[in-house]
Amino acid sequence: MKHPLHQFRFCPKCGSKHFVEHNEKSKKCSDCGFTYYFNSSAAVVAVIENSYGEVLVARRAKDPAKGTLDLPGGFIDMHETAEEAVAREIKEETGLSVNSTKYLFSIPNIYLYSGFEVHTVDIFFRCTVNDFNHLIAQDDVSELQFIAFDKLNVDEFGLVSIRKGVEKILKLVLENK
């Protein structure tokens, strides 16, 4: 397995090329002594149900996994809570306003962005929305649709963590019936 910092060749502090593996999750500069630990980026995923018990599903407009199904969400910005991020991402991708959020679970992931492996922790939230009248696919979403839980096909979701999340959600739904 490749070191998670294999693409980092120079020290981010002094620019030295003597930036070498320190342990399984860090590199250290032999010149200035700076040690960089590679930590996961945080991302949010929204599970939104309508009054018919169907879940809101997006179709990805961009790579990675362009054209496949997804759940709305995205990266958490600096100085933003996970709850703020999920509400912002929902607004950006669907035009909807989130009324409340409830943490469900998290799943580690590797998200390939512009040829770079971004290690993430995808934080899944159940989000409630009262008004679906302003639903519109925008930002990096090409289409939005509601699908009944029993009609969800895990294989149609392009991102590994989302597939795992949908499997977990389906298990939770079945346990609550």
* DSSP summary: helix tally: 2
Query: Biggest sheet: strands side by side, in what order?
Result: 7-4-9-8
Alpha carbon gap, first and last residue: 41 Å
Proper CATH architecture of the largest domain: Alpha-Beta Complex
Broad CATH class of the largest domain: Alpha Beta
Number of strands: 10
Shape: elongated
The proportion of residues forming helix, as a percent range, comes to 10-25%
The CATH homologous superfamily of the largest domain is termed Nucleoside Triphosphate Pyrophosphohydrolase
Q: Characterize the largest beta sheet: strand count, sense, and whether it forms a barrel.
A: 4 strands, mixed
Q: Roughly how many Å is the radius of gyration?
A: 19 Å
Mean pLDDT: 94
> Might you state the CATH topology name of the largest domain?
Nucleoside Triphosphate Pyrophosphohydrolase
Order of helices and strands: EEEEEEEHEEEH
How would you characterize the overall build of this protein?
This protein is α+β, with helices and mostly antiparallel strands. The chain folds into two domains: 1-38, no CATH class; 41-175, Alpha-Beta Complex (Nucleoside Triphosphate Pyrophosphohydrolase). It contains two helices and ten strands, in the order βββββββαβββα. The strands form three sheets. A four-stranded mixed beta sheet has the order 7-4-9-8, with helices on both faces. The longest helix has 16 residues, at 160-175.
